[in-house]
Amino acid sequence: MSIKKKLGMGIASAALGIALVGGGTFAYFSDTEVSNNSFAAGTLDLAVNPSVVIDVDNLKPGDVMVREFALENNGSLDISSIDLATAYNVVDANGDNVDDFGKHIKVLFLENADKTGDGWVIGDYNDVISETTLYDLQNMTPDATENLQSWITWLLGLNGEDSGMAAGTSDEMYVGFEFVDNGEDQNEFQGDALELEWTFTAHQTEGELR
């Protein structure tokens, strides 16, 4: 074998040996940082103040009752809507009812005054319920924070707040009830009672890129 071939083999062998040694003792620089992250959920906390909106007795046909209460967003998240569900129980004192007492108790209005704003100047009250009996309300779920004002009110700058309720705010509500006098015999309701349950369910706003 010639010197060149031997030398070439020696270099190849030496190079391979270095590569193997290098592969076994490979060293590198490094630096490590730790990122501590967290996910904290917000809260929806709706309150009705006072919790008992109306408690009245000794009613007779034709009586009208107006009450005031507030819906309060005590949570950390904005509310997009508040559904109102109606349920009631009639206590038939004499067991002689042939009609539903709920058909004779009407909600004349449920106004969200914060949404009305100055709309009252032109008679545009933000009534989320209007002229509806409790019997019919059982099948309805109005949004208590929806702004229903006409475009004219907005054009004139008399409108109230937008629909929904920001965190830490409240909406003032006014409600009117009537024991309807239908001009007919309503003696079957004498001594009766109607237990009304209004359930307000708040919903969050749409999710967003954070």
Can you tag this structure with a few keywords?
210 residues, alpha+beta, 5-stranded antiparallel sheet, two-stranded antiparallel ribbon, 4 helices, 30% strand
Mind explaining what this structure looks like?
Strands 1-2-6-4-5 form a 5-stranded antiparallel beta sheet. The chain is built from 4 helices and 7 strands; from the N terminus they run αββββαβααββ. 17% of the residues lie in helices and 30% in strands. The longest helix is centred in the N-terminal third of the chain and has 22 residues, at 3-24.
Beta-strand content: 25-35%
Whole-number radius of gyration? 36 Å
Strands, count: 7
Low-confidence stretches: 6-13
Task: Give a short overview.
17% of the residues lie in helices and 30% in strands. With 210 residues, it is α+β, with helices and mostly antiparallel strands.
Note the topology.
Elements: H1 3-24, E1 46-49, E2 64-73, E3 79-91, E4 105-112, H2 113-116, E5 127-133, H3 134-137, H4 151-155, E6 170-179, E7 193-204
Antiparallel strand pairs: 1-2, 2-6, 3-7, 4-5, 4-6
